[in-house]
């Protein structure tokens, strides 16, 4: 079949019987009409339509040699640097369509699944309780049916001590509690499935940690409506349907959920591995996961930074503060961050090399640097927007106010130096939704922790960065032995 349309995606999702709980109630009816999901699902559907658009179809798809159908480029296993560039250009198209604000656009999980199929399958071959052929089968099914995924790998925050072991009589962190001729049985929970419940499948795997219970060392993918699987949602950050009042949350609020496994049977043909701590470590650390996932994320974050820069400059022009040097310095911070990220992305592609299985991996080092840079600069970008807008970020009437009897007052007192009042308010509401609404603060938190604890990220960079040659040069200079 290959690529699908937006309507196909929505119909497929509405026909599923996924168990989703929101605000203490089990969701019934068409998922695409629910207030908490309507906006994001319409946006997601528009992405699928975009890859069918005549203007973009050749830039967003490739021809499957097996089925002769068009496949989304985010599933492409790159063999050359040109393939890497094609993937990046496709990712940019979707990112620009969402202004980089949709962290779980389908290409992110497609990229992860592709990376697992390109390296993890080979890493697991011949190991105990490992089924690499199942990874390849899920990958093939996903790309031929244009499936979308969420993923979950974080354990509940019951006890953050590194020596913590789950002593509860009932599992808290999801683990294998049994197995039979049909598959493995999972009980417990995992956290932070962004878009959990509103995708075709959920990919579940274990993030490596210092002390790991073998019962928690597993990976698999199952349909979101699997029996016993439920998604418990947080409060929605959709402010309302009006794109004037809530220009971002009405379109891009992705929702996060807790994933509960209530004696869920995972069929053997969906199990990638289980009860294997070494496999759980190799699956993430030695595969191409970090190379390709970070390449996709950095591409999106660059587009998002461009969007932030555009908002900041539009604020500056609207209230005419461009002449002030402190404003110029603040905008320069965003520009420096943007160009730094672009340079790191370009270097990752220039330094790309074929791995042992013949796939072209972007260089990991510049991508690691980027994952340490962006969590620090994005919160600052948000602060800069707030500082430029100042009190103007607070006095923001709604769309209905401009349709009421006070329109004349609003036009007089809320006009900008270069914009009429309604346009000025629309611009400031956009800046507010990005940085000060519940949606905006979630965006800041999301980017701060996208790849995990920033301290661990910097520690990993230090531990893996090649420093010995620099130490040798200094030692030789000092004639040390």
Give descriptors for this structure:
481 residues; alpha+beta; 6-stranded mixed beta sheet; 16 helices
Q: State the low-pLDDT regions, or none.
A: none
The spatial strand order of the largest sheet comes to 2-1-10-11-7-6
Rg result: 24 Å
State the end-to-end distance.
66 Å
Helix/strand-derived category reads alpha+beta
Share of helix, binned: 40-55%
Number of helices: 16
**Percent of residues in β-strands:** 5-15%
Compute the number of strand runs. Answer: 14
- Mean model confidence by pLDDT: 94
SSE order, as H and E? Answer: HEEHHEEHHHEEEEEEHEEHHHEEHHHHHH
Largest sheet: 6 strands, mixed
What is the approximate shape?
Answer: globular
What's the short story on this structure?
The protein is built from 16 helices and 14 strands. By secondary structure, the protein is α+β, with helices and mostly antiparallel strands.
Topology readout:
Layout lengths: L5 H9 L4 E4 L2 E2 L11 H13 L6 H4 E3 L6 E3 L8 H17 L8 H19 L7 H14 L3 E4 L22 E5 L3 E12 L6 E5 L13 E5 L5 E5 L15 H4 L3 E12 L3 E3 L3 H9 L3 H31 L5 H26 L2 E2 L5 E2 L2 H26 L17 H7 L7 H15 L2 H11 L5 H11 L3 H11 L3
Parallel strand pairs: 1-10, 5-8
Antiparallel strand pairs: 1-2, 3-4, 6-7, 7-11, 8-9, 9-12, 10-11, 13-14
Explain what you see.
This protein is α+β, with helices and mostly antiparallel strands. It is about 45% helix and about 15% strand. The strands form 4 sheets. The chain has a 6-stranded mixed beta sheet with strand order 2-1-10-11-7-6, with no helix packed on it. Strands 5-8-9-12 form a 4-stranded mixed beta sheet, with helices on one face. It is globular, with a radius of gyration of 24 Å. The model has no long low-confidence stretch (mean pLDDT about 95). Helix 4 crosses helix 9. About 45% of the residues are buried.
């Amino acid at each position: 079949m290959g690529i699908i349309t937006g309507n196909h995606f929505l119909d497929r999702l509405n026909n599923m019987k996924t168990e989703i709980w929101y605000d203490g109630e089990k969701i019934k009816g068409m998922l695409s009409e629910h207030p908490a999901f309507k906006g994001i699902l319409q946006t997601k559907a528009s992405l699928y339509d975009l890859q069918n658009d005549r203007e973009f179809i050749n830039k967003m798809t490739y021809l499957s040699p097996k089925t002769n159908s068009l496949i989304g480029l985010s599933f492409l296993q790159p063999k050359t640097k040109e393939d890497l560039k094609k993937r990046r250009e496709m990712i940019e198209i979707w990112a620009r369509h969402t202004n980089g604000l949709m962290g779980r656009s389908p290409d992110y999980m497609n990229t992860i699944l592709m990376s697992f199929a390109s390296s993890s399958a080979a890493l697991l071959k011949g190991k105990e309780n490992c089924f690499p052929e199942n990874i390849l089968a899920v990958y093939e099914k996903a790309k031929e049916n244009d499936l979308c995924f969420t993923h979950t790998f974080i354990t509940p925050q019951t006890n953050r001590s590194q020596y913590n072991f789950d002593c509860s009589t009932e599992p808290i962190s999801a683990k294998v509690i049994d197995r039979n001729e049909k598959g493995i049985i999972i009980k417990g929970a995992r956290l932070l499935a962004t878009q959990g419940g509103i995708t075709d499948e959920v990919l579940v795997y274990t993030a490596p940690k210092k002390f790991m219970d073998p019962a928690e060392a597993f990976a698999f993918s199952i349909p979101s409506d699997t029996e016993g699987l439920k998604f418990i949602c947080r409060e929605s950050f959709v402010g309302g349907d009006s794109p004037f009042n809530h220009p971002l949350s009405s379109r891009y609020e992705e929702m996060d959920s807790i994933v509960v496994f209530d004696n869920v049977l995972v069929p053997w043909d969906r199990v990638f591995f289980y009860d294997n701590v070494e496999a759980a470590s190799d699956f993430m650390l030695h595969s191409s996961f970090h190379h390709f996932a970070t390449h996709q994320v950095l591409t999106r974050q660059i587009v998002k930074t461009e969007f932030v820069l555009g908002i900041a400059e539009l604020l500056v022009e609207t209230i005419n503060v461009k002449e002030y040097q402190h404003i110029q310095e603040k905008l320069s911070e965003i520009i420096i961050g943007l160009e730094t990220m672009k340079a790191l992305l370009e270097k990752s592609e220039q330094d790309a090399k074929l791995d042992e299985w013949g796939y072209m991996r972007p260089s990991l080092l510049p991508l690691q640097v980027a994952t340490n840079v962006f969590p620090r600069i994005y919160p600052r970008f948000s602060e800069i927007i707030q500082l430029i807008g100042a009190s103007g970020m607070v006095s923001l009437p709604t769309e209905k106010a401009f349709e009421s009897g006070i329109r004349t007052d609003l036009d007089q007192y809320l006009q900008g130096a270069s914009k009429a009042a309604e346009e000025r308010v629309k611009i400031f509401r956009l800046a507010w939704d990005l940085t000060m609404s519940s949606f905006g603060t979630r965006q800041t938190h999301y980017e701060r922790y996208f790849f995990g604890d920033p301290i661990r990220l910097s520690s990993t960079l230090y531990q893996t960065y090649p420093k010995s040659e620099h130490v040798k040069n200094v030692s030789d200079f000092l004639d040390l032995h």
